[in-house]
Structures are given as C-alpha cells and as structure tokens.
Amino acid sequence: MLKEEVEEFYDIFSKNYPKLHSSRFVDKIFEYFISRYLPPKEKLIILDAGGGIGRFSFPLAKRAYKIILTDISIGMLNKAKEIADNLGFKNIKFFKESVTNMKNQKNDEFDVVLLMNSILDYCSDHKKALREVFRVLRKYGVVLGTVNNRLIYTTTNILLEKKDVKEFEKAFETGNYPKRFLIHDFTLEELRKELTEAGFKIINILGPTNLLRKWEYEDIVNKENEKDILNSQIKFTQKKEYLNNSSDFFFIAKKS
Ligand SMILES: C[S@@+](CC[C@H](N)C(=O)[O-])C[C@H]1O[C@@H](n2cnc3c(N)ncnc32)[C@H](O)[C@@H]1O
After folding, report:
1. Tens of pLDDT along 158-216?
2. Angle subtended by helix axes 2-13 and 74-87, to nearest 10
3. Which residues contact 92 (CB under 8 A, 6 or more apart)?
4. Domain range spanning residue 53?
5. Rounded to the nearest whole angstrom, what is the distance from the C-alpha of residue 51 to the centroid of ligand 1?
6. Is 252 in the pocket of ligand 1 (CB under 6 A)?
C-alpha cells in the first residue's frame, strides 16, 4: 500500500521530473562528493537504486563496466530509458524493483551502490533496504547516499506548516510522518546506528547542504555566484561541527 503510493506519486511526477531536477545545484554538490569517494577501480559495476532518471549514474557511464538502474516507478524508468537511448549508452540495464527487495540482483555483485536523494527515507523499510544493499555489494564495495536530516525536515514539514504540535512531537521523536506518502527521516545517530547494524563500516558522514536548506539553493545560486557557492559549500560540507545544520546527510560506507 505505502510502496504503491510512492510509486503512483513518482509515476505522475516523472512527467515533469527531468525539467525540475535535471540541473539542480544541490545535485552538483552531491556529484562532487560521489566522484571523490568512488573506488579507484577502473571499470566499476554500479547499482543506482531508486535511480530515478539516472541523474547520478549516467554521468558515470564512461567509468562503468556496467550500470543497473532500478526504481519502483515505471514512469521514472521510462524517462531514464529514453535519456539513456538518446545518449547512446549500451552498458545500462533497467529493472522495476524496490530497494527493499532487489529480486533481480545477485549477491556480491556491485562495486558501488547509490542511494541518492532520500531513497532510504521513502522506501518504507530502510532496515530491509540496507540489508539488501549489503547483500548485493561485493566485499569492500561502497554505498553512497543521502538522507533527510530529521531535525530540519520535520520542523519544516510539520511545525512550520502550522500543524498540530502533538503531531510535530511524534514526528520529531520517531522521524515518521505522512507527506505525499509516508516518510522516515533520520537523525545523525540513527543513521550511524542503522548503517552499522546492517554490517557496514562507515567511511564518512558529511553535511553537503549546511549553508542553506536544500530547497533554498535554487533561489540563491545564479551564474555569477555558482562557482563561489560551490567551493564554499564543499569546504563547509566537511566540517563536523556544522553537520546538524545540513538538511541532508551524505553517507559513505563500506562492506568490509
Ligand atoms: C527523489 S527521487 C531520487 C531519484 C534519483 N536517485 C536522484 O537522486 O536523482 C526518489 C526516487 O526513489 C524512487 N523510490 C521510492 N521508493 C523506492 C523503493 N522502495 N525502491 C526503489 N525506488 C524507490 C522513486 O520512484 C523516485 O524515482
């Protein structure tokens, strides 16, 4: 039921998704840190789980031996296929499957799994999803992903929307709240705990959106200041004391 709500939302959203999300500034920050933490191996096998229209994996196509892009939304997958066809990529395969049950993927297959832009928040069971990611990664493979910081998202989505204070407290304590579908947002400690419990060794957790809220960058960044803001954000992303001011956490963890 919940998964179907997400699926339905993204099937509809996919019609405008490329226009709205193809060149977001925040994704450029994320992309910078993906390239920085990719394993040095020459030809990577990459799984872009909940990959949407391939925003992160397609730019890696030249570095990859093979890319698998999965999503639960057929609308997003069709857009992704269209883009891949237009770009002439031959080494990309697509599957409609949930990150909580990656039934088409073998054990110990991938060098890299991407979980970009809140897949763990939206997938309805992040514990199951992390177990699946652990299963499909090779030994020493890395998972790179972002999740919403609960301290910022629940205040924005509930308290600032002037909803009931009790409702806010519940969401602030548990991380769970309904938006367009049920969402679970993370605290830093919880993210650490969940990654560790799933068997991962945490390499780093960064705060890539700690200058502004994620959704504010598009209004502030322009052609003139883009380079400076990017450089500044890259610098502050790595400052541990600013981590909880980031609307998103960027995690890098290894199967060791
Ligand atoms: C915010 S978009 C991010 C897409 C892509 N990772 C990116 O960063 O551009 C979230 C995507 O997750 C997909 N999704 C949500 N729940 C999922 C699940 N349980 N399994 C796989 N994909 C899921 C949605 O259909 C949507 O395409």
Report:
1. 999 988 999 999 999 999 999 989 999 999 999 999 999 999 999 999 999 999 999 99
2. 40
3. 54, 57, 58, 61, 66, 67, 68, 69, 84
4. 2-149+186-255
5. 6
6. no
Question: What residues contact residue 134 under an 8 Å CB cut-off, 6+ apart?
Answer: 198, 199, 200, 255
The structure tokens 């600032």 sit at 160
- In CATH, what number is assigned to the domain containing residue 11? 3.40.50.150
Number of domains in the chain: 1
Rounded to two decimals, the pTM is 0.95
From the CB of 250, is ligand 1 less than 6 Å away? no
CA dist list (Å): 73 to 44, 45, 77, 114, 218: 25, 23, 6, 17, 26
The candidate with the shortest Cα–Cα distance to 134, out of 109, 155, 154, is: 109
| Among 187, 198, 200, CA closest to 141 | 200
* CB distance 52 to ligand 1 below 6 Å: yes
Residue 1 pLDDT level (bands cut at 50, 70, 90)? very low
